[in-house]
Amino acid sequence: MYVFPGLGLGATVCGAKKVTDRMLYVAAEALATFVSDEDVGQGKVFPAVTSIRECSHRIAVAVVKEAVR
Q1: For residue 16, what are the contacts with CB-CB under 8 A and spacing of at least 6?
Q2: Nearest-5° Cα angle at 17, 25 to 9
Q3: Are 9 and 53 in contact (CB under 8 A)?
Q4: How far apart are CA 51 and CA 46, in angstroms?
């Protein structure tokens, strides 16, 4: 629900021919860094659903950077 919209957006925007393991890794890493320390302190593993668009954007940017790399 969190990773795949951003992963798909990033791959589509940059015209990637395939999704690599590294692209999946940076997508998961971007999601993990999106969770605030406050969220972690409350025992949350994922950010609030209300922030899914911003989260997907951050993931897409990470995927595009990796695809270009």
Answers
A1: 10, 23, 63, 67
A2: 60
A3: no
A4: 10
| Total-model pTM | 0.88
Instruction: Report how far residue 48's alpha carbon sits from residue 66's, in angstroms, rounded to the nearest whole number.
Output: 25
Q: Give the DSSP per-residue string, 15-56.
A: T-SS--HHHHHHHHHHHHHHS-HHHHHTT-SS--GGGHHHHH
pLDDT tens digits for range 9-56: 999 999 999 999 999 999 999 999 988 888 889 999 898 888 899 999
Cβ–Cβ under 8 Å, residues 21 and 67: no
CB-based contact 39:31 (threshold 8 Å):
no
